[in-house]
């Protein structure tokens, strides 16, 4: 029991940092306050109001006279009470000065402001882990104009993200509380890019249970782990090393095609490849590609259609029907893509 309490105290101290000294000082003053009230009520036989008032004027050293006549023992106790109270106030003042020097108050204010921003987010992305993979994911999503919340345990990475203006939460991504704090219930997608395979499985499983509708993309280190992550609830499983090797091979086998796709996806030129979801109320519903007049109106090329059932139709013909909840894979200028989104 004592050992468990000691461990909790150590954990609380590590979490509180420089605020720990202030907590100790406040706890000490409260103890002195309670001891003083108990003495005057128990030994001097005063009522609570008189005892409370006596302790207040004693610890604050305002110099008022005693509420009632004190016994010799009471005067000695009051003298020690004054010394103990003044010492407590001096200790708290020193701790507060240390907090100001460390910039802890500024950090706390910044974190509070950040949490308010996170609580307002809707349809944002949550990225678990800001290592080599996670940092690139965050960079790409933010470059596309979307809101991102990063969950990371490394304090150094947290400090760097705060300096870069990235919304982040310090904590364990496998914790239900941390995921909910990141706005999991209102997020559009979650990307689990942690280095630990077991942690990615746990994050995926937890996120799917807390929000069954969220889109989850998980990182895997080996092909044999794909099925495990999919069973846990991942919509997509990505193997970074496999994709990196595949891209290097394509760069030497089909360099022109690879460069074109990269430019189209990353927006290196005024040409972009985009997914366009057709809502049930869109004017394009139940029209074929010719009648939709997408090409003449918006100068876009539809290279594929993902049907609501999940079936992919590549190089769709002119008579291919566009249905509600279909996803059009279009290529064209960014301005034209923005225009067609208004009728979807």
UniProtKB/TrEMBL annotation:
Keyword Membrane recorded: yes
GO biological-process terms attached to the record: potassium ion transport
InterPro entries associated with the record: K_chnl_dom, NAD(P)-bd_dom_sf, RCK_C, RCK_C_sf, RCK_N, Trk_Ktr_HKT_K-transport
A single MF term (Gene Ontology): monoatomic cation transmembrane transporter activity
Gene3D superfamilies: 1.10.287.70, NAD(P)-binding Rossmann-like Domain, Regulator of K+ conductance, C-terminal domain
Topological category with respect to the lipid bilayer: Multi-pass membrane protein
Parts of the chain that traverse the membrane: 20-42, 48-67, 79-101
GO cellular component: plasma membrane
This protein's UniProt keywords: Membrane, Transmembrane, Transmembrane helix
Cross-referenced PROSITE patterns: RCK_C (PS51202), RCK_N (PS51201)
Highest taxon of source: Bacteria
Subcellular location: Cell membrane
UniProt name for this protein: TrkA-N domain protein
């Amino acid at each position: 029991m004592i050992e468990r309490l000691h461990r909790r105290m150590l954990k609380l101290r590590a979490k509180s940092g420089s605020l720990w000294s202030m907590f100790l000082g406040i706890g000490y003053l409260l103890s002195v306050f309670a001891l003083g009230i108990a003495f005057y009520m128990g030994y001097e036989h005063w009522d609570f109001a008189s005892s409370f008032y006596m302790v207040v004027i004693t610890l604050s050293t305002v110099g008022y006279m005693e509420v009632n006549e004190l016994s010799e023992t009471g005067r000695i106790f009051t003298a020690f009470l004054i010394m103990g109270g003044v010492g407590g106030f001096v200790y708290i003042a020193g701790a507060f000065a240390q907090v100001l020097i460390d910039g802890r108050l500024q950090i706390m204010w910044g974190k509070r402001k950040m949490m308010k921003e996170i609580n307002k987010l809707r349809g944002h992305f949550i990225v678990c882990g800001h290592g080599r993979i996670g940092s690139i994911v965050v960079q790409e999503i933010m470059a596309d104009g979307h809101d991102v919340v990063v969950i990371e345990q490394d304090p150094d990475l947290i400090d760097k993200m705060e300096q870069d203006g990235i919304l982040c939460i310090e904590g364990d991504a496998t914790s239900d509380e941390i995921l909910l704090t990141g706005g999991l219930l209102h997020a559009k997608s979650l990307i689990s890019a942690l280095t630990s395979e077991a942690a990615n499985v746990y994050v995926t499983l937890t996120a799917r249970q807390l929000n069954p509708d969220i889109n989850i993309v998980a990182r895997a280190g080996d092909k044999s782990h794909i099925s495990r992550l999919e069973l846990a609830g991942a919509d997509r499983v990505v193997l970074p090393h496999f994709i990196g090797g595949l891209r290097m091979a394509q760069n030497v086998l089909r360099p022109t095609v690879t460069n074109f796709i990269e430019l189209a996806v990353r927006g290196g030129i005024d040409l972009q490849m985009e997914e366009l979801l057709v809502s049930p109320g869109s004017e394009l519903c139940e029209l074929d590609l010719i009648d939709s007049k997408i090409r003449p109106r918006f100068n876009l090329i539809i290279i594929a259609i993902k049907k609501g059932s999940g079936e992919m139709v590549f190089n769709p013909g002119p008579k291919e029907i566009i249905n509600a909840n279909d996803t059009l894979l279009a290529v064209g200028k960014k301005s034209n893509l923005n225009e067609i989104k208004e009728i979807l």
